[in-house]
Amino acid sequence: SVGYRTQSPLLHRTSMRPVAFLASSSFQSSPLLSPSKAKSKCLLSLSTSPYSYGTPFFSDPRVIARSVLPSVALVEPVGVRNRRSRGSGFVVDFPAAADEDEGVTTLHLLTAAHVAQPGHRLSVSFPSAIGSGSWNISSVSVVGRDARADLALLKVTLVAAVDIDEEDNDESTNNPPLSQLLPALKISHGKEVEVGTPAFSVGYPAGGIRGTAMTSGIVCASSFGLGYGDGHADEDGTGSGPDDKETADRVSTSPVEDSNEVTTAEPPLVPPSLPTFSRTSFVVTDAAMAGGMSGGPLVDGSTGEVIGVNALVRPDLRALGNYAVAARECRAFLTDLARQRELSRSPQRGVEVMSAAEKKNSGYKVMLYNDPFNRRARVVQVLASVGLNETEADETMMTAHRLGKSVVRVFPGSKDGAREAALEMCQSLQEQDVLVEVECL
C-alpha cells in the first residue's frame, strides 16, 4: 500500500514522498531499502528505487469532479412508444460546419455509438452544470457514428434563454459564455496509458441515482479487442465471441413493455454471441462502471485529461471488466469525421456521416431500423403512406427485420431540394412512431 506524510509514525519522516509498506522481513537485505533508514527496514522508499520514474502526482478527486462534471451530459435516446434509455456524453472540441448559420450556438458531444442508437430521438441535458439554465437546447443530431469503435459524435444547438423583464435591462441579464459553463474536455494525446495511472469514470448511472456519479480506480491494462480468442472480425470490426449462452444471458436484457420506464443504453452485446471489437483499442480499469455511464469520460487522475470513453462491462471479469475506448481511437474518429466532411468522401475507418447538414453536394438516404414493437402490417402501412407501393414497402420492412436496417428511399444530391425532401420524409415517418434516420451517401 502507499501512504502519505501525516501524523502517523509509520511514514518516512524525512520526505513528503509516498512510501510503500513491506509486509515481509525477507526484504531486509534488499538494495532498494533506503540507506538513511537502516533501522526501519520495513519501509521501502519509492524515491530510492532504481525502477522509480519519479513521484507520481495525484489530483484531489474533488478538483477532478469540479472541472469535469459540468461538461458531462445526460443523453437519453427515445424510441418507439416513447421508450427512454439512459447514457452519457461529454463536450469536446470539433470544428463547426462551413455552412453553419452565423449566430447559431452549437457544441459537440462525444459518446458511445450504442447510446446514440440509430433511428432514436435524442434528448440532452446538463444537470451538473451550474448556470446551464441560461441556455435552451433546441435540437440534437448525430454528426457521425463508428460502430467498429463504438463511438458517436452529437451536435447540440442552443439558444439563449431571455427573461422578459421591462424593469431589468442591465448587464445582469447577459448570459455567461457557453465555454465557461460547458468547457470542452481535453482528450489525451499519449500513445498508451501507463498501468497504474489513477482513473476516474464519470457518467449518469441508472437505478435511481440522481445526478452525475464518479468512481475511482486505476488503469489495469490495455486491450486490443475484448480478448475472446475464438472471435472473428466481421466487416464492421465487431466480430463475434464465444457462443456461450450463459455468458450472453448475463449481459442481455429483454424489451421493456412499460413505455414510461427508463432503461440503460445497452451496449451491442446481443446473444447468442458477444462482439469482440477485435480492431478497437480499450483501456481496462477497475473504476466501476454502471448502466447509464456508457459514453461518459474516463479521466486521468493526474492530468484531468480524457483517456477513454466508457463503453461496456464484462461481468465474467468482475472488477477487471470495465472497458473504455482508448483516447487514440477517439482522436482518430474525430479526425476522420472532420476530414470526411471537408472532402465529401468516405474515410478508411468506416466512420459514417449521419447528419444531412454535415455534407454538401452528396445524396441522402432515409434508413428504416428494426424495432421489437411494431408489427409487420403496420410498418408496411406506414411506408405506403409516404409513397412506397405495397411490394416496395414489404421488401423494405423484411430487409430491416432480417438485417436490422434497410433503405426506404435514396435522394440524389444532384437534384434540387434533395436534403429537404429526405428530412421531410424522415419526419413524417417519425411522427408515425417508426425508427428512421437520414444518412449521407
Can you give a write-up of this model?
With 441 residues, the protein is α+β, with helices and mostly antiparallel strands. The chain has helices at 61-68, 178-181, 245-251, 327-343, 376-384, 390-403, 418-431, and strands at 2-3, 19-21, 43-45, 72-78, 84-92, 105-111, 121-125, 135-146, 151-160, 198-203, 213-224, 262-264, 281-285, 297-300, 306-313, 322-326, 352-353, 364-369, 405-411, 435-440. Strand 4 (72-78) and strand 5 (84-92) form a beta hairpin. The chain starts with a strand and ends with a strand. Residues 1-55, 164-173, 229-259, 268-274 and 344-348 have low confidence and may be disordered.
Please give the largest β-sheet.
8 strands, mixed
Report the portion of residues in β strands.
25-35%
**Structure class:** alpha+beta
| Total number of strands | 20
Q: What kind of assembly state do the chains in view correspond to?
A: single chain
User: C-alpha Rg, in Å?
Assistant: 25 Å
Q: Return the average pLDDT rounded to an integer.
A: 76
Series of secondary-structure elements, N-terminal to C-terminal = EEEHEEEEEEHEEHEEEEEHEEHHEHE
Low-confidence stretches: 1-55, 164-173, 229-259, 268-274, 344-348
Shape estimate: globular
Which percent bin holds the helix content? 10-25%
What is the straight-line distance between the termini? 56 Å
Number of helices: 7
